[in-house]
Amino acid sequence: MRTYDLSPLYRATVGFDRMADLLDRVLTQDSTVPTYPPYNIEKTAEGAYRISLAVAGFTEAELSVEQREQELVVAARKAKDDTQRTYLHRGIATRAFEKRFQLADHVRVTGAVHENGMLHIDLVREVPEALKPRQIEISRAAPQVIEA
Fold first, then answer.
1. pLDDT band per the 50, 70, 90 thresholds, residue 74
2. How many other CB atoms are there within 10 angstroms of residue 127's CB atom?
3. Where is the SHSP domain positioned along the sequence (predicted)?
């Protein structure tokens, strides 16, 4: 596995430390990143996204969706079940998990829906008016008279 030294990036830039941290985190992750639960990320419209997680076996009360600054944290913990069950085959995993997604600037969660064993989280990117590109009007300069 290759490793990259991003320290020159830290020394040569100002204000890009969050981006450098994100790159560092992505580049240093190994192949043991948990893949449970499986999920999809789709673009539903311009500036709108949906994360869908397969959460079969969990109820709404056992699921948690929280946005912390630029991070979305989805967690699940199965409630204690006191009934004795004997499984002949157990293929539905209901183990606890915590899944984290890094969000871009100005992305916020607009809602979450649990249906048919899927948790759908809708997100939207809303850029403030002050940060949107704006057209600057170019005016014609008045002719200047040069006196001799």
1. very high
2. 12
3. 30-141
Q: What is the pLDDT at residue 2?
A: 62
Q: How far apart are CA 95 and CA 34, in angstroms?
A: 12
Calpha distance 83→48 (Å, rounded): 43
- Tokens found for residue 132: 């949107």
Q: Domain spanning 34-80+91-128 has what CATH number? A: 2.60.40.790
Place of tokens 């959460």: 55
Q: Residue 41: phi, psi to the nearest 5?
A: -125, 125
Domain assignments of the chain as residue spans, ordered by start: 1-33, 34-80+91-128
Express each pLDDT in 107-141 by its tens digit: 999 999 999 999 999 999 988 888 778 888 888 88
Q: DSSP per residue over 9-66, as a string? A: HHHH-SS-HHHHHHHHHHHH--TT---PSPEEEEEEETTEEEEEEE-TT--GGGEEEE
